[in-house]
Amino acid sequence: MSPKLPIDSDHYGSERQQERIILSPLDRSLRFQCLLLWIPAFAFLLPHGIETEQLAPVLGIIPMTISLLASIAHLSGRAQTRSTNISLDVLIAASLIFILIPGWVMMAEGACWKCTNIRTVMVGTYGTAAMMLNFCFHVYFILKEVRWRTLLCCGGRWGKQECPHCHGIISRKTKKVKEVGGGASYSALPASEEGEEQGVSDWYGKDDARASTDGPRPSTDDETARLL
Prior knowledge:
Blueprint: H1 9-19, H2 25-52, H3 61-75, H4 82-109, H5 118-153, E1 161-162, E2 169-170, E3 176-180, E4 185-189, H6 203-213, H7 220-227
Antiparallel strand pairs: 1-2, 3-4
Helix pairs in contact: 2-3, 2-5, 3-4, 4-5
């Protein structure tokens, strides 16, 4: 039997830590509001559905519940992959708008000030207001994620150069380079590795140190004259 290779738990732990999405204060506030909006949506939509016996907009409780669970996952730090998050936001936003439009149409058909069900219409309107706010928040999350991916894919290489030795991208964040092969070859050192590479000096510092120790090489004519 082949020996089992040891598993570096610290390495996998660091990868999981990097996969976790760090929310900004604005995103955390909006996710918390999505969590709170479930309360009025459930409190108003369920009685409206029981009273009117209509599926819309009472079905909005389902995407609101999914939004509640997604908000809990984000606030607790359990949301890891961006692709899953944006897909979930698209699903929630699409479900909300597909339920809101028929719900508004059904409520408008029975809305009249002389009708006896005006209170029922008001209850349904309050419930759809919570759904509409939740829809706006998830649309914001979608647009923010799409803009981030667009800048990363389309504009990520603007203003950057490629290192001729390691073929890495040299951007404005690349503050240092390191020597490879023991010669005059250099490779780009990203700014994220700056703390790890403590023994690497700056480009100009390295160049000045080499220039101070190494003298100029004699020309070919001087070497030929010495041999003769």
